[in-house]
From TrEMBL:
A GO MF label: endonuclease activity
Coiled coil: none
Protein name listed in UniProt: Uma2 family endonuclease
Residue ranges of domain Putative restriction endonuclease in the record: 14-195
Domain of life: Bacteria
Cited SUPFAM superfamilies: Restriction endonuclease-like
UniProt xrefs under Gene3D superfamilies: tt1808, chain A
Keyword Electron transport recorded: no
Pfam families: Uma2 (PF05685)
Keyword terms, alphabetized: Endonuclease, Hydrolase, Nuclease
Length: 201
């Protein structure tokens, strides 16, 4: 991930200039080029497929859009593009921007948000944990398929890990799942999924 030195953008100017360019996010007015790799996209694609199958199986009124933007704060120029976001389609009627732009501004619209870790692991483990918890997203997964995160986050020895963050009293309680372990999710309690199911071949 590289930081593009430009003048600070407002949220509206970001949407106007970069709304359709999915490799960019906005953090405190600063444009961020996320530079996804092929393996990163493979993991995100496989996970999207697995969760869509579970949504269908459970007949849930949920949808996984391809280009949603999360705006966690109304007064801060930040726009996140999660690698995967599960939305409650019935709640989208309450979203003020949804009919014009795929922008989420109400936390209750989001059932789950997922970030697939790449070289910007610090953002996924620290900044986005804070942003998503303050916004009120009930469940957040950090899929660290290469084991890039710091030892403080994924332990020693460093290895591929999925961290499931559950919102409890405005803070995330975190639990790590490694190869061979079934992922436990409150959003998808019947899900039969392990990290190995979404790794690149």
């Amino acid at each position: 991930m590289t930081y593009t030195p430009t003048k600070l953008l407002t949220f509206d100017s970001f949407i106007k200039q970069y709304g359709t360019q999915t490799r960019y996010e906005l953090a405190d007015g600063e444009l961020i080029d996320m530079e996804p790799t092929g393996p990163h996209e493979t993991v995100a694609g496989k996970l999207t497929s697995k969760l869509n199958i579970e949504i269908d199986k459970q007949q849930l009124p949920w949808v996984i859009p391809t280009r949603a933007i999360v705006r966690p704060f109304a007064n801060i120029a930040t726009a996140r593009r999660p690698d995967l976001v599960v939305l409650d389609e019935l709640a989208l009627a309450q979203e003020p921007l949804w009919q014009r732009e795929p922008v989420i501004t109400v936390a209750s619209s989001i059932k789950l948000v997922v970030e697939v870790v790449s070289t910007n692991w610090e953002t996924d483990y620290a900044r986005k944990v804070e942003e998503y918890s303050l916004f009120g997203i009930s469940e957040y997964w950090i899929v660290d398929f290469l084991g890039l995160g710091g030892i403080a986050f994924i332990g020693r020895p460093k290895q591929p890990t999925i961290t499931v963050c559950q919102l409890v009293d405005d803070e995330y309680e975190q639990r790590q799942f490694r190869l061979g372990e079934r992922i436990i999710s409150q959003t998808f309690p019947g899900l039969e999924l392990q990290l190995s199911d979404v790794l690149p071949r």
